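With this grant's support, we have settled on a layout for protein records. An illustrative entry appears below exactly as we store it:
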Amino acid sequence: MYEWSTPVLAGAAMAVGGLILLGGSVALSSDPVGLVLMAFAGLLLLGFASYSLLLRPRLRLVTRPAPELTLRTVGGSRTYTPADVDRVRIRQLRRIGRRSSQLELEILRDPAVSTVAERTPTDEALPDTALVVLNRWDLGADPYDVAEVLDDAGFVVVTD
């Protein structure tokens, strides 16, 4: 079994930072604008911390007896088999002079539709899919390493 999620230490650091900002806003209550800004920033950090600490593990792969991929979101957990996932792809992005990679999961809404491995280039009818994008922060690991494990488990991994 493999599990990927945001590191606990990062979530805890955000929670501590949020509490410090909330405490600082109370200490600076003589400045109303500073109080509002610091309280808002503290609440945002606490929200991000709770998001990263409560959605654990973000992605789980069970390989036995059959491969199953469980994705945990705010709406709950859902489990998918390789037949439910159209493809897994790594996207390399360049933003503000920095390269980052993302893991894209295209999940079939109708599992009866064939996967990308079974379609020919002349097929015009593309299946209805839901796109899930996970980055290094969500996974707590390099998306390339996660894609390699998913490929070994039998999921269709497409490289650009």
Summary: The mean pLDDT is 85.
